[in-house]
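ARCHIVE RECORD
Type: protein–small molecule complex
Small molecule: S-adenosyl-L-homocysteine
Source of inputs: curated submission
Record status: active
Notes field left blank by submitter.
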Amino acid sequence: MKSKGIVYLVGAGPGDAGLLTVRGAELLGRAGVVVYDALVNKELLRLAPPEAELIDAGKRSSDHAIPQARLNELLVDKARAGQCVVRLKGGDPYVFGRGGEEAEELAAAGIAFEVVPGVTSSIAGPNYAGIPLTHRDFCSSFTVVTGHEDPDKEGLEVDWSQVAQASGTKVILMGVTRVKSISQALIDHGMSASTPVAMICWATTGRQQTVTGTLATIAEVAEKAGFKPPGLTVVGEVVRLRDKLNWFEKRPLFGRRIVVTRTRAQAGPLSRLLLERGADVLEIPTIRILPPTGQYEIADALLELNAYDWLVFTSPNGVAAFFELFFKAFEDLRDIGGVRIAAVGPATADKLRGLHLKVDATPKKFVASNLAAAMAEQGSLENLKVLLLRAEVANRDLPKQLEEMGAIVDDIACYKTVPETDDRNGAVARLLETGADWITFTSSSTVENFNARIELKPLLARYPDIKLASIGPETSKAILTLGLKPDLEAKEHTTDGLVKAIEAAPLR
Ligand code: SAH
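STRUCTURE (tokenized, with ligand):
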């Protein structure tokens, strides 16, 4: 049977990646093709399988990267070719943004489709600025209108006199550049010039910015603030609640742009901590993890796994890479045998515990040289076989120390790293365009790899306000080696410690 293609029109939510629906995440996870809009949070693309084709439909007001007609054709063609297509649209697919038209095209072409609702910016945006659209003390309805008519469409003018007369809160999408004429129109049609107004751009993301005023003043306030799209405007008494309910913008790191430098696989926990504190996180991957060049050695080691007394892991990447290879060779975790397990530091140990493996040795101070001592605490290493699972290029200190303690060491590469050049989430472009408050480094290799991708000295010359945050002494040393100085070194050498230190640092 020929496989049948299908198109899922999926609402990506307003920006905060956490606001994608469970259904949306599930469908992204099995997409063959993802066609996404400019306002979609690019981090969501990571949910798609690595081999999925990603197409940037890049729609930004007036300059459509792919014309709508061509886009509709593309969806139809991909589905006809048997693909599972996820059409990822900002907010909710059926609130402006032409989701209805795309669905009509699919229906007309006889393509199977499903539309997955999304959290619309018209509701979530005000929420993240501390504004509920309805409230028993103020109003019991709201109206959502577009402030920017589609130039291709005739006869669908917004009737501002009706909007002005409607009771309740008004939310205006796509009206940032026209706020002056819109607020004037609302006043002309009978609304009080002192009605409270808020404008929110990049709502629900770390770049969110909110300004407030009244119908009389908002245009000037927005202009002074250099307010730019994408943004929305909320008009009504509910705006007053913002003083009390502004939970998002009060987060400790709100408004701070922080670069996280790690591998794709590892950035998660640090980014999450920062995001939860309201930071604008630019996750810049510097290296990509690939299988080792020659795989014979690791294949041999896997076949003789039960001959080893210790498995030693020196990075979370090593753990991930090893178990990927392990499960290619074996179906059952019990094939790992009774071997003891050592981890060089807490992140590596956590990764192992995440697989429900007990870690028998971790040094108190997180450097390779202390690991041998921690292992020896469990009994002499004399004549014990140790399998060291590391990156292709790794220094000789650890195997040397283990050998000096009598161990027989096999130092085997289970992955290699290559420089990352892709800028899938656009973070590199944003850093180069706007600078940042902090660049975080969590190991000496993140320093070296970051510097190989984006040279730090010229970057700091261009943006002297950027500060460097180091997780600990080894990492700081790597920064000093580049002729630079860390502005902060975490007291506790963990991601938690690093975040705490940034939180405690003075603003400037
Ligand atoms: N379907 C989308 C709206 C598409 S129209 C939804 O349901 O949210 C695009 C407009 O949505 C933008 O011009 C802006 O007015 C608004 N918008 C989308 N995301 C936004 C965000 N993160 N912050 C503020 N406004 C946003």
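CURATOR ANNOTATION: The chain has 19 helices and 22 strands.
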